[in-house]
Design goal:
By secondary structure, the chain is α/β, with parallel strands linked by helices. The chain folds into 2 domains: about 250 residues, Aldehyde Dehydrogenase, Chain A, domain 1, CATH 3.40.605; about 190 residues, Aldehyde Dehydrogenase, Chain A, domain 2 (3-Layer(aba) Sandwich), CATH 3.40.309. Helix content is about 35%, strand content about 20%. It contains 15 helices and 20 strands. α3 packs antiparallel against α5 and α4 crosses α5. The longest helix is centred in the first third of the chain and has 22 residues. This is Aldehyde dehydrogenase 9 family, member A1a, tandem duplicate 1. Pfam families: Aldedh. Converts gamma-trimethylaminobutyraldehyde into gamma-butyrobetaine with high efficiency (in vitro). Can catalyze the irreversible oxidation of a broad range of aldehydes to the corresponding acids in an NAD-dependent reaction, but with low efficiency. Belongs to the aldehyde dehydrogenase family.
Amino acid sequence: MAQSILDTMPGASTGTVVVTDHLNFWGGKRVKPRQETNAEPVFEPATGRVLCQMVPCGAEEVDEAIKSAHAAHLKWSKMAGMERARVMLEAARIIRERREKIAKLEVINNGKSITEALVDIDIAWQCIEYYAGLAGTLAGQHVQLPGGSFAYTRREPLGVCVGIGAWNYPFQIASWKSAPALACGNAMVFKPSPMTPVTAVILAEIYKEAGMPDGLFCVVQGGAETGTLLCHHPMVAKVSFTGSVPTGKKVMEMSSKGVKQVTLELGGKSPLIIFKDCELENAVKGALMANFLTQGQVCCNGTRVFVQREIMPKFLEEVVKRTKVIPVGDPLLDGTRMGALISKPHLEKVLGFVNQAKKEGAKVLCGGEPFVPSDPKLKGGYFMSPCVLDNCRDDMTCVKEEIFGPVMSVMPFDTEEEVIKRANNTTFGLASGVFTRDISRAHRVAENLEAGTCFINNYNISPVEVPFGGYKMSGFGRENGQVTIEYYSQLKTVVVEMGDVESLF
């Protein structure tokens, strides 16, 4: 059991962990890959060393996992909501109890700071706890018809749902997708990112330990080919995907062939608008939170920072001053605030965006360079210094395209009308933000921004009670909040005739 890997976590440090456990999970246990000829190395971002091998699942393994999930769904869906809730609450309790160990393993596989990872694990158990609370409330509607006849609706599970996760929040996304699915009576087959395969299996074991039927939450490893097999499988009722727009389009296209329901949580290039009447201290902190969490690898980050011209010099001065002193280094140290990017190719891609910005006329006020920590064991890690860009224009590559790294692009604006138009001039629509003391302006701007979320006088807070999802090419469907129950269930109408049939024949 993987509890063994968790038990090694208290004494583990960066550069010491090797994962040898099998990473697939169905039928209530870890499953050895059928063949290991096409294994892919998984790297520890902070050191660049190989953490483990990820062996992608083929057609037979995907079929086995889905059949295991279907069998579990048949049992789970017949349980009362309150019965499901008790099991989910136990899972949340176990996660809460092991949060430090899970967070540490997450950091080793993902590269983010331990401070952030602990918050991620807390959000994960809170999400499961929240949907446990909703499991017993699922209900339909009664409709009175003439002559004593009536109709009623039943909210029923979909069946086997597929979750496809991203590498920036591995454990949290697995929880966000599975919690509402399981609360509604579904089973889930989850495919983590091939770069972060380690912690979703821990969640599977915790669900089993909490009392869920074997197979209810399965984990299959793999990349695009395994994802394709999942999307095409006839026993899958729904696919929930978090990732890039191009891959999201493919998931949607593949799922449409089987008329499967789809939730897509895709990329973003979100605007953060800072008016001159803001509380500047909060606006600066908000901009840092909007750009540098998880090394900037967050889909809803407010990377287009629009600052009203009158306060632009003071804002830049403060932001640069604070960005320069962000502690970058060993992500397992409590004092670290920025760890390593996910991979070497991704680091090079982000640095390439900074170089392109300079060519197009942007001015680097700080950062944007490879960073080599003083600790020798981190020499091969994927670190860079957080970057602030000035002299940006709306038509620059760094302003239009999602960089997915610690790069903030700052631009001046003059009027509210102008900045709303510029903020909405993008194919994305995941999030947005506004800092102002004017309450009327705050709500007016929020109404006019074309995005699934608008933060007022804060940024990047994600309470599980609040729906999250995008407009435009940032996707559709929602995660978190009560509304997500509708995305993991279907409505059946039952019409009851209490009198005689009126026939035309």
